[in-house]
Design brief:
Length: 262
């Protein structure tokens, strides 16, 4: 029963997503047909303002990537969370904005997206810089497991979609991009690392020096991998500020993700 329902839901979503790829152009010329499965398209347009920045080709790729995501990734509700089609669609949509480069794979290693209602507590197993392992579990809003799994707090996904500076979906899926080449070193797969290395290193060093950073979350100073996650969040959530205060970083991420957010 559950399987049947979710398959029907998925088929409707895929139909709607196929439809929205060409929708912007069509809307200008003729009224939208009433019987089209537009709820999913409307939801994405409403909640993902970045879609308005995409050109026609990127919108088509967005539709394809969302479909792939919904077909191949399994969503699992944790701590009593019931996963709805809307949640699946919004997570798939937000994540797909990170993979609009021509030929980009849709997170090939990822198998499962786990969603908690809010922040979740996990036991800490790795020692800190003093070699101590805390007794208390740590509260988290997201995790990206090397390879196959992303964990999200739904409360924080919604906050991001409402414009919060923290975007846990962008952060964790940037880690997935980083891990695709197996390194987890703050760089996704690129044809040429020269400019990436230069800009990221100097901005990372700058964040480590700044006492009160204005745009970037200080958490990015933890490591190059966290810096890529935090810089990506700023690119999506505070594009104009990032462009103003960290021009080269903004341009690097704009060239990588393929569209403007400022
Ligand atoms: Zn992180």
């Amino acid at each position: 029963m559950i399987l049947l329902n979710s398959l029907i839901g998925l088929a409707a979503l895929v139909a709607a997503i196929l439809f929205i790829a060409g929708r912007r152009e069509r809307a200008r010329r003729e009224p939208l047909p009433q019987s089209s499965p537009l709820d999913a398209g409307d939801l994405l347009e409403d909640r993902l303002p970045w879609l308005a920045r995409l050109d026609i080709e990127q919108r088509a790729r967005f539709g394809e990537q969302v479909q792939r995501f919904l077909r191949h990734k399994r969503f699992i509700g944790c701590a009593g969370m019931e996963i709805t089609d809307e949640m699946r669609l919004l997570v798939a949509g937000m994540a797909s904005l990170l993979v609009l480069r021509p030929g980009a794979a849709a997170f090939p290693k990822l198998k499962e997206v786990l969603i908690y209602p809010g922040p979740f507590r996990v036991p800490v197993t790795e020692p800190d810089e003093l070699g101590l392992v805390p007794d208390e579990p740590e509260e988290r809003i997201g995790e990206s497991w090397q390879g196959d799994r992303v964990v999200l707090s739904w409360q924080d996904v919604e906050a991001a979609l409402d414009g919060d500076a923290v975007n846990v979906v962008v952060h964790e899926f940037a880690h997935q991009l980083d891990d695709e080449n197996g390194a987890g070193d703050g760089a996704p797969s690129l044809a040429d690392y020269t400019e990436w290395a230069q800009v990221m290193q100097s901005e990372f060093d700058r964040l480590r020096r700044l006492r009160r950073p204005r745009v970037l979350d200080p958490y990015g100073a933890e490591s190059p991998a966290e810096f890529f996650g935090v810089a990506s969040e700023a690119f999506f959530q505070r594009g104009a500020d990032l462009a103003h205060h960290h021009r080269r970083l903004y341009e690097l991420l704009r060239d990588y993700y393929g569209f403007e957010t400022a």
